[in-house]
Design goal:
about 5% strand; single chain; 6 helices; mainly alpha
Length: about 150
């Protein structure tokens, strides 16, 4: 995949939130499947209080969901629907290290009512906190013209 030219515009807040809503629904479905499979281990018994291995399994699913999509193609399914893609600041696709750093940086950015995401409304480059901290950029990619 070629590097993203720096001339592509940064994705705005509404486009990012739209993709995030799609992705959270997909992530919820994935977590439900993982939970259903985990109950097989307990013979159908409830996972309450949640054992350490189950909590670790949920965190691993969450991390692999985001990082896996970012590393393999640069976009989640929600990002694909909204025509946005994440790249390094230099325009390269993310590797596992960059994706992990971006995910870790997104936790504090999203925690206090998503203030780190809302920050892009005031940022001169339209970057959220986790974009700046991980040296990544979410860009708008126009779909190819038909016909």
């Amino acid at each position: 995949m070629p590097a993203t030219p720096p001339t592509l515009p940064s994705a705005g807040l509404l486009r990012r939130i739209g993709a995030l809503v799609y992705d959270l629904l997909l992530l919820l479905a994935a977590l439900m499947v993982v939970t259903a499979l985990a109950t097989l281990v307990t013979g159908g018994e409830a996972l309450y209080p949640a054992p350490w291995w189950y909590q670790l399994l949920l965190v691993a699913t969450w991390a692999l969901f985001w990082c896996g999509f970012w590393v393999h193609g640069g976009q989640t399914l929600g990002m694909k629907a909204w025509h946005i893609r994440v790249r390094t600041a230099e325009g390269r696709p993310l590797g596992w290290r960059e994706a992990g750093l971006r995910l870790l940086a997104a936790v504090p950015a999203m925690a206090p009512a998503g203030v780190g995401l809302w920050w892009l409304l005031f940022d001169s480059d339209r970057l959220a906190w986790h974009d700046r901290l991980s040296r990544t950029r979410v860009v708008v990619e126009r779909p190819p013209r038909r016909g």
